[in-house]
Amino acid sequence: MTTTPxxxxxASPRSRRxxxxxxxxxxxxxxxxxxxxxxxxxxxLRAPADYPEPPVEALVEMHRRMVVGRRFDVQATALTKxxxxxxxxxxxxxxxxxxxxxxxLRDTDWVFPxxxxxxxxxxxxxxxxxxLTLLRGDWHCGYDPAxxxxxxxxxxxxxxxxxxxxxxxxxxxxxxxxVALAFIGDGATSEGDFHExxxxxxxxxxxxxxxxxxxxxxxSVPLSRQTAAPSLAYKGxxxxxxxxxxxxxxxxxxxxxxxxxxxxxxxxxxxxxxxAHTYRMEAHTNADDASRYRDGAEVEAWRDRDPVARLxxxxxxxxxxxxxxVAAVAEEAEAYAADxxxxxxxxxxxxxxxxxxxxxxxxxxxxxxxxxxxxxxxxAAQDEEGER
Length: 388
Description:
The chain is an alpha/beta fold. The chain contains 13 helices and 7 strands. The longest helix has 26 residues, at 56-81.
């Protein structure tokens, strides 16, 4: 059953506040061109007044996390080829988006990731083995969502949009200044849950940032088959949500735009929609053959817009990075990957009965019957083994 804003209003008498009509002076439209503060070579461009450049210390930390994140991503891809992971959706090429979103938030804010946000989660400080537990098929989620303020990675498209709106509304209702950030792919903006989540958040001024990473393809479906809008950022306008579009391969611009979006949400002004124009360099997952729907020339053109190289060039020109610092970060990234390899090569011990845990708060009769059937089969197998 779909929950509408009207249903929530009726069910929550304490939340009945006098409706405030939208202010027609509030700007909703995104910039006509994506916000960009660095060109592809790392040369600074004139910064718009609305988006001042983040502190250089934040950018140095962003560079470090992007380098480590990319090395993690490459290692996770290799683990998939070795059969250590069932599937892995790479986010290589989207490092600025993955890390920029995390840096724009407080530790007490919530993240609602899709299946592609493994890099964002390790950048948030979550143990990489715990992040990959889902993708290895060991458990529904390897980390404690409440402790990490990070929802489980979401495989169904766009359902996290509704979850983020609900949590953010609940936090605001209780007087906390928590912001929820929901990662979304371009294809997910075609799903009903995306529109319901944005509409709910707008009506109740829930402090949510909807962050669309437009990497050009929903698996093999190009953006041109998803929307006829000038950009996905325009989808917020119909719901009264201010929106912006940004060059998703420009780390400085991504952090600047997301910092403003988070501040907007935290100040009580309601949700904000950001579209980042980026590109995934690898296939959708290891099960996908990207050469069937895009050519090598397109991939190479985006390789020239590498977000890691762009930020490194800029920070070197600023004197904030040198050869020694770059080498130290690379060494840290290699050590991170080596530790991940060792721990992922250890065979996990999995209890088959755990399959039935956390499915429902109270097990249904059917689930109880299935659980007892599995228990009996395991016991019979154990008895048979003991007789040999």
